[in-house]
Request: fold
Amino acid sequence: MELLFNYIDGVDNFLNDQWLKVLLMFNYDDRLIFTFGTSLVHTISFLIGNLFYMYVDYTGKPAWMLKYKIQKDKHFPVEPRRFFWCCAVVLFNEILSCVLIYLSYPIMKYTGMSCDQPVPQLWKMYLLYMAFGYLNDASFFFGHRLMHHPSIYKYCHKMHHEWIAPISIAAVYSHPIDHIFSNFVPYFIGPILLGSHLSLVWWWVAIAQIDTCGHHSNYHLPFLSSPQYHNYHHVKFRQNFGGISWDCFYKTNLLFQKSIEAKRDKTFYCLTPIDVQYPDETDKNKSE
Reply:
C-alpha cells in the first residue's frame, strides 16, 4: 500500500512539474492559458483523432483497413469533392469552437475554473472526470434527441445525417447550431457547471474528442473502443441517441439490442475482424 501511495505522489509531482512549464510558457496569464491553450488542445486532439482516418478515407489505403470497415460498400475511398466539402464545414465549426471557448472564459472563471498550482490530486481528478462523463452523456442525449425533433431536424441535424456511413472527420460535420448543442455544450457542460482545474479540462476535451472521432470512423479496429453503437444511429437514425444508459431508460435502442451489431459492439483483442467473429445470419447460413 505504501508503494502505491508513493507512486501516486510521484505522478502528482510529475503533473505539477509539467503544469509549471505551461504556466511559464503563458507567463501566468489565466485568460491566455484558457483561451489560446484550450483552443490549441481542442484543435490538436481533433487532428490526432482524425489524421490517420482522413488518409484512409481519402486514399483507400492501406487496403487491409477495408476488412475492419463496418459499412464496407460505402466511402472507400470517399469521393474527393464530398471529402473536401466535409473538411471545409469542419474547419468552420472548429473555428466556431475556438470562438465559443474564448466567450466561455468569464463563465468558467465564475464557476471555479483554476489555472494555479498545485493541480488537483489524482483521486479528485478521477471523480471530476467521471462526473464530466455523466454530464456529457446526459446533455448529448437530450440535445441530440432535441435535434431529431421533426420541427428542428430538417433545418439543423439533417446535415449531419447526410453521412449515413460516417467518416471520422464528419463527427463535427453539422449545422453551426447543431454543432453548438450536440458537440460543444456536451464537452464543456461538466467543466462549466462543476468548475475544475484547467489541466483536467484539457485532458477531458482531448480524450472526449478522440473518442468521438473514433465512434464516427466506421472502422471497428482491434484494441479500440467499438463504434458500432453510434454507427447504427447513422443507419437507423431514430435509434441510439446517446449513451447506453439513457437509451435503455427511454427504450430508444430496442432495435439495436436485437441486431447483429449489438453482438459486435465490444472491444476485441485479435486481428480477426469483428464481423467475421459474429457473421450475419445470411453469411452463416451460406457457410453451413
